[in-house]
What we know:
three-stranded antiparallel beta sheet, Multidrug-efflux Transporter Regulator, Chain: A, Domain 2
Amino acid sequence: MEKSTEKIFLNYPNVKKRFEGEDVPLTNTEEVFYQLALFVSDPEKYSFNTGLFYKYLTNEDLIFGLRILIDFFQKDTVLIQNKRNAFINAGELEDEILYNQTTFAKYLKERGLNYTPTKLGTYYRREKQNPTGKFPLEDISVNGTPYWVETTVQAYANELLARKEKEGEKNIE
C-alpha cells in the first residue's frame, strides 16, 4: 500500500501535503488522487468511487489512476489469488489499445466474423454469470464498463478464425 501512495505523492505533491494534514487547496484532479490515496492506504476505512475517474480525469491522469488501482489490487492485496494473465501489468496499459464492447465487435466483424455489439454483449454477460472460458472476461472495468486490451481481442479473433476454418474443413468432408 505504501508503494501505491508513494507513486501518487511523487506525481501530486499537494496530495501528499493534504494527506499529511496540511490544509492546501486541491484541484479536481488532485482531489481524485487524494481520495485514491486514502483508499489505498487504508481500504478498510476509506472507499473509492471509480466514477471520479470518469468525471474528472482524462488522458495521462486517467491512465495513471488506472495503473494505481491495478498495482494496488495485484501487488498490494491478496484479493487476487490466481493472478491470471488477463490482468494488465501496470507498465502495459500505456502501450495497449483498449476496446469496449462496440469496438471489440467491430474488430471481429472486420475479420469476417459475424459479431454485433449486441451479440458480443450477450456472450460477455453469459460468461460473466457462468464462467466457461469460451469468451474472454474484461481485462479492466472502469465505472462498470468492460474493456479488453488489443492482445485479448486479437487472441479471441484468432481462436474464432481457427474454429471457423476447422468447421469449414469438416463441411468439405
